[in-house]
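Quick look at the format.
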Amino acid sequence: MNHQAQRLDSYYRQHARDLPWRHTADPYRIWVSEIMLQQTRVEAVRDRYIRFLNRFPDVGSLAAAELDTVRAEWSGLGYYRRARYLWEGARYLVTHHNGVFPVTSTALQAIPGIGAYTACAVAAIAFGEPVAAVDGNVLRVGSRVLGIEAPRNSAALRQPVKAWADSIVQAGEPAILVQALMEVGAMVCTPRSVACKQCPFEDDCVARTMPDPTLLPIPAPRASRAQWRGVLFAGQTPDGELLLQRRPEKGLLAGLWFLPGLVGEKTENRIQQGIHEPGTLVASVLPGCSQPTQTSVKARWQFSHIDLQADIYRVTIPNTFRADGHALYPPTEWDREALPSVTRHLLNSVGISLIESPASDLTSI
């Protein structure tokens, strides 16, 4: 074992956080944890991970479930596309591998929704393949240790960091060292602070000699955020049933329940008309419903790459209303459905009180 691997191994065994997914070598459970942890805080995942596994304890149970059931269990975690990836991956494993995981990172990448990072993490932790899983934490640590002044996610950074991390993982126990690299990035060498005295790479780190090690890696240029407008209708029947519309399976909030109306870039002209003439719009998208209230409630939501500003109108829905892609739900069923946090937030903004699910700050499309 080389000296970096040895120090990293020692650090992890002494300081690693006690997390539920670190007590298993089951590739299914490791896979679920890695997908849940993408773009989501550890504390938000901890309890939801256990709950998800209680509902879907193995590949077969996840593959046999309805997609809506999986989405409902995921509700509030954000980045809902991940729930579909898990479900599709489970069905693929059952169909093509009898529910048994391939044991190499290369073979794992054939499973829908599993990219290079997740494949390496599962292969190393579950099967001991000596490959490093390079996420943002590892890129940051590698950039500072090696002193690489290159933008995040550039090949000029990713390639040498991957080679460095692989050399460490190959020098010891892969399951330990892969997780240890992530742990250093999460707890010691964070985006905005460094604790060099606690770091197993202190003696080898180039950035430690810099006035501010947190300047590495160089930030990548930020893409401009799209600005979307929307005109949405919060509709209830006289009996209190809530009208929801299922989003298309591709695009914003794919396949999830949302408020009926218009939202997005390609409907800007109709949205502007709807802001000024909501009665005309509601007659076209929800025929037979009451005219909306005279004033709208303005609400905002931040998706991963989109800022949404919506005008929301209250309308009354006939008890007999039926339309493709729409459903009426009594209050007793609201929390049973896969309602994303944005839907709950928008409804709450007009006084329809749904309990906010614990969620990440951003919701991805």
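Next, a different chain entirely:
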Amino acid sequence: MRIAISGTSNTGKTTLINSFLHTWSNYETPDTTYRDIIKKKKLAHSSDTTTGLQWDILNNMVDSMQAYDKTSNVIFDRCPLDNIAYTLWAHAKDNKGFDKEFVDKCINIAKESYRSLDIIFVLRYDESIKIEDNNTRETDPGFIKEIDNIISALHEQYKQNYEADVFFPFNDSPGIVELPSSPQRRIDIIAEYLTPEGEMYGEETSLFNPDNINELEALVQQQQNALDVDNKEKELFRKFGLDIDTDDLKNGPRL
């Protein structure tokens, strides 16, 4: 399985990958990432990105993905989905060099590269989580949210209009699954897709059909909503100093 974790800055990608590798120890992650390009060349990044940097990062991601085949067990920190989001943002801001020709060229390369991935787990930005500065990460919440919205829009386009989607190859795209903000819930949901041995449950063609993904995500959201309600109930009882199991309320009083 070739898995990628995507998401804007400050969404917990590194934390999730570390937890994933602890749970599925037969997986690996590349020794170098796009961050090494930024550090080595001392380049501007995020909102200060350039066409040269975006091009270098895209090619680094593609080369890294193509180094693995379908028999590999690997998890990537970001993928071309993220790169395209930043490129589209720079194009929308009329940044120098980000014209339609450059954007189209990047989209076409990214589109073909997705054939080298089996599934992308997308992490959304949670504004309640404090932004940490590691000298390579964007810390402007406005910019972080804008990138988050672009990634979400690309995912929505994939779900709603898959056959006409210009960003992903038809009939040979990875599955795309959005994960909640809770670190433990993320691992729990990934475990609904992967066996303890790290293999995919079921047949790839049926599991990652966009219609089935919509159904799975709806189920995941229902589970998350139920968990949120349960937690709110427990918090309410704790607030009033009551030690009540919410399961008792659902099942009725025990005599």
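Residues 203-207, 239-255 have pLDDT under 50 and may be disordered.

See the schema section for token definitions.
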